[in-house]
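User: Hi! I have a protein structure encoded as tokens and I'd like to know what sequence might fold into it. I'm fairly new to this, so please keep things simple.
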């Protein structure tokens, strides 16, 4: 008696599940479209850029408090602090931030680099990455 992996009646269900997985994967890989990079100095917004429309990497110099300066790189993939003269360099070690809600903070310079996503109107209790 020959045993098959799938019964012929199970193929439509298998195809629907596979198609749903492909669609979900395509939507989840679609980068930070609608994501905005915001740089605040002392609580005041000094830079706001839409990341989805950037064609090339954009570099911006930000002067903070206490003589601290940051070089921020913005690209379609996300944003990062590429260079700083602050003593602990925590903001630089954060690396690339690419999802809404992520941030890189320079405490000595009182500078915050954060990403905001599109306003969807949904209210979430929690978000897990």
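Assistant: Happy to help. Inverse folding works backwards from shape to sequence: for each of the 129 positions I chose a residue that suits the local structure. Here it is:
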């Amino acid at each position: 008696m020959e045993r098959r992996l799938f019964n012929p009646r199970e193929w439509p269900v298998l195809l629907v599940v596979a198609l749903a997985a492909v669609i979900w994967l395509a939507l989840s890989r679609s980068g930070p479209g609608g994501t905005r990079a915001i740089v605040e100095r002392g609580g005041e917004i000094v830079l706001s850029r839409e990341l989805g429309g950037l064609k090339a990497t954009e570099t911006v110099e930000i002067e903070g408090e206490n003589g601290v300066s940051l070089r921020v790189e913005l690209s379609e993939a996300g944003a990062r602090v590429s260079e700083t003269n602050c003593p602990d360099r925590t903001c630089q070690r954060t690396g690339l931030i690419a999802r809404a809600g992520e941030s890189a903070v320079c405490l000595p310079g009182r500078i915050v680099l954060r990403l905001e996503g599109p306003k969807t109107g949904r209210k979430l209790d929690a978000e897990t990455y």
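A useful reference point when you look it over: Strands lie at 36-41, 44-50, 58-63, 69-75, 78-84, 103-106, 111-116. Feel free to ask if any position seems puzzling.
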